[in-house]
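Hey team,

Filing this mostly as a record. A colleague (T.K.) asked me to run one chain through the structure pipeline before their review meeting, and I want the input and output archived in the tracker in case anyone asks later how it was produced. No errors, nothing strange. Just documentation.

Input sequence:
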Amino acid sequence: MILLTGGLVVVISLLVGFTGYELVHTYIWYLLGFFIFLTGFAHYVAHLGLKHDSENLQAYYFSSMGLRMVFCIIVIFVYRYFHEEHIVQFVFNFFTLYFIYTAFEIYALLSNLRQNSKKQMRGDE
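Output structure:
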């Protein structure tokens, strides 16, 4: 996650440096922090599920995804309620980060499941 976030910081900084805030919303750094928190939280919940109750991991994973969706909807509605300008730019930046961090989360979850599956096949539980 550190490498992903570092790469995003570099890309966002380059975009801001070359285009100003034409492509990137002025709240992009807040959005980045928000997604770092959400992804870390979801990974933590999935890790707890895998560690303590691996048979019901999907319940932990889907509950963290549900919370993620609720928080994302709240952020979009709060922004829309308080700001009239640059809504399309905000939503585009928001969902770009959303899909990047969701893809990372799915990748991390699959790699953890793969490792757990290999342990169970060998009998190293």
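Quick notes for T.K.: The radius of gyration is 17 Å. The CA atoms of residues 31 and 37 lie 10 Å apart.
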